[in-house]
Design goal:
The protein is mainly alpha-helical. It has a single domain, classed as Alpha Horseshoe (Serine Threonine Protein Phosphatase 5, Tetratricopeptide repeat), CATH 1.25.40. It is built from 6 helices and no strands. It has helices at residues 2-14, 18-34, 42-58, 62-73, 82-98, 104-124. Helix 3 runs antiparallel to helix 4 and helix 3 runs parallel beside helix 5 (82-98). The protein is globular and about 40 Å long.
Length: 127
Amino acid sequence: MDRAASLWSDTELTLGRADGALTLADRAVATFEATPEQRRNQGSERMARLQQVKAHLVLGDPAAAENALQPVLDTPADQRVRPLVRRVAEVGARVAATGEPRDMVTRRILDAVTVFRSDTVTKELPA
């Protein structure tokens, strides 16, 4: 149910139904959080959290988006797979396109996405 709700959330967002997307993403995250740590699919959980972020942004609530984004940003660099980095970049692009750049929350989100992406690239470079 957790991963399926996340995928349906993505569909809802694509169809322009942010309320439905948020409901499904919230359900997915709650299911992940109720699962014992050793049995959780952390990659899918991060993707569900990014669905929450995107839905909050579409609904005009950057503070809630920032709150939902934080657990994703806490992902250790060695666990930042390309699909995750790509989705975080999408969040940054959405914020840049729709957010007010002088808004403090929007600025923090953009800065955090930039740091997340640069830390990831740095870890991928050969020593």
